[in-house]
């Protein structure tokens, strides 16, 4: 995809709007997944496994479709069906009457995201080459998280007026439709997928720089130590820290904060590089003891620290891949990074779901140790120019 600087700006904003309405859709559901599963009879272990399994499927598919994106350059052919599956699954939650059905739909939604994300990220990285990597991914992440804020707030309003979970999920069909309309409009404007010679790409360790694999190890440790919000929401409800209607509100506000953090850390990345991710990761280690061992005030502070850490990861990890990996290998690189992240996120989420049912202090220790293990890897990354 060959873009002028002006077209690159336009592409970043349009894809950002697609992500805004997409996140409004599935984050509206995601912010209520834990309480909804609990309402349908699921326990803490089930919530942790469902959340982890969804991310495992998500990131495993990113590996496969990242390779396919490099192999075929058919970015839109991959992205459009993925977005469609990702968005349709959410309103269908309105018809789930049992937790296994809801769990299947939540995992299906994650599968759609796994299919479409590598192709979108490669196209976005090509635009980022023209306008600044940290800025482009920061703007995208900020719009993404704006939708992540609005979706849960919309569902919270529905719950506040006693409309119930089915109606709350059904109304999310509106932003889902808007996302698909803007996606198709963007495709019409930028239908040329790539200007790189179409040559086969072997998916192997060779050909990717050592610093990329150090990045994989570092963010993998972070993934193990970061619980899914569904488990925190489950805890907030079970410990009666806040009314059910306020749980999606807290999530929505967290997504808004994450958007601001992504934009700010993206700008800082263009100046300071990977040091920005390290600076964000250190205070974020306190999220688990605050969220799971304290009252309402500490829990909200823990959620805020978790949010800032996630915001930094969301913009900086993608910018680092664009910095470290040649353009023709980025689909595979994004897929490899994300699939590793997803496998370890699944392992960490499942472990912390089990620990939640047996020992909250064990959960906290597990989270902190995993995040501490990431720091040596992050410190050793050396930025290199690729293009």
Q: Which stretches of 5+ consecutive residues score pLDDT under 50?
A: 193-205, 383-387
Radius of gyration (Å): 19 Å
Number of strands: 0
Helices, by number, come to: 16
Multimeric state: single chain
Query: Helix/strand-derived class?
Result: mainly alpha
**What number is the mean pLDDT?**
84
Q: Could you outline the blueprint of secondary structure elements for this entry?
A:
Layout: H1 5-30, H2 33-39, H3 44-72, H4 75-88, H5 99-131, H6 133-160, H7 164-170, H8 173-189, H9 210-225, H10 229-238, H11 246-272, H12 275-284, H13 287-293, H14 296-324, H15 330-358, H16 360-380
Helix pairs in contact: 1-5, 1-6, 1-8, 2-5, 2-10, 3-5, 3-10, 3-15, 4-5, 4-8, 5-6, 5-15, 6-7, 6-11, 6-14, 9-14, 9-15, 9-16, 11-12, 11-14, 12-14, 12-16, 13-14, 13-16, 15-16
Short structural summary:
The chain has 387 residues and is mostly helical. It has helices spanning 5-30, 33-39, 44-72, 75-88, 99-131, 133-160, 164-170, 173-189, 210-225, 229-238, 246-272, 275-284, 287-293, 296-324, 330-358, 360-380.
């Amino acid at each position: 995809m060959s873009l002028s600087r002006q077209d690159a700006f336009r592409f970043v904003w349009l894809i950002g709007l697609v992500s805004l309405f997409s996140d409004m859709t599935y984050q509206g559901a995601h912010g209520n997944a834990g309480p909804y599963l609990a309402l349908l009879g699921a326990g803490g272990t089930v919530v942790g496994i469902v959340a982890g399994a969804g991310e495992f499927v998500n990131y495993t598919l990113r590996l496969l479709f990242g390779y396919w994106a490099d192999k075929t350059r058919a970015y839109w052919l991959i992205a459009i069906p993925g977005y469609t599956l990702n968005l349709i699954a959410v309103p269908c939650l309105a018809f789930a009457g049992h937790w296994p059905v809801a769990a299947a739909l939540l995992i299906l939604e994650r599968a759609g995201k796994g299919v479409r994300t590598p192709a979108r990220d490669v196209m976005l990285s090509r635009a980022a080459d023209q306008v600044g990597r940290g800025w482009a991914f920061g703007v995208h992440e900020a719009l993404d998280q704006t939708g992540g804020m609005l979706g849960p707030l919309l569902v919270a309003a529905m719950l506040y007026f006693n409309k119930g979970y089915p109606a709350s999920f059904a109304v999310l069909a509106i932003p889902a439709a808007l996302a698909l309309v803007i996606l198709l409009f963007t495709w019409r404007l930028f239908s040329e997928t790539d200007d790189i010679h179409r040559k086969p790409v072997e998916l192997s360790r060779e050909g990717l720089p050592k610093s990329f694999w150090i990045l994989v190890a570092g963010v993998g440790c972070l993934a193990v130590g970061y619980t899914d919000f569904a488990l925190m929401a489950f805890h907030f409800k079970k410990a009666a820290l806040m009314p059910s209607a306020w749980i999606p509100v807290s999530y929505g506000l967290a997504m808004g904060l994450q958007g601001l953090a992504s934009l700010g850390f993206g700008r800082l990345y263009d100046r300071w590089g990977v040091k920005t991710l390290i600076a964000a990761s250190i205070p974020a280690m306190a999220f688990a003891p605050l969220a799971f061992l304290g009252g309402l005030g500490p829990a909200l502070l823990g959620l805020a620290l978790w949010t800032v850490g996630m915001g930094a990861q969301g913009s900086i990890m993608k910018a680092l891949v664009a910095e470290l990996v040649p353009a023709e290998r980025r689909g595979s690189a994004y897929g490899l990074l994300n699939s590793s992240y997803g496998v370890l996120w699944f392992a960490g989420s499942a472990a912390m779901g089990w620990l939640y049912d047996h020992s909250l202090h064990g959960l906290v220790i597990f989270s902190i140790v995993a995040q501490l293990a990431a720091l040596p890897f992050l410190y050793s990354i050396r930025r290199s120019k690729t293009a």
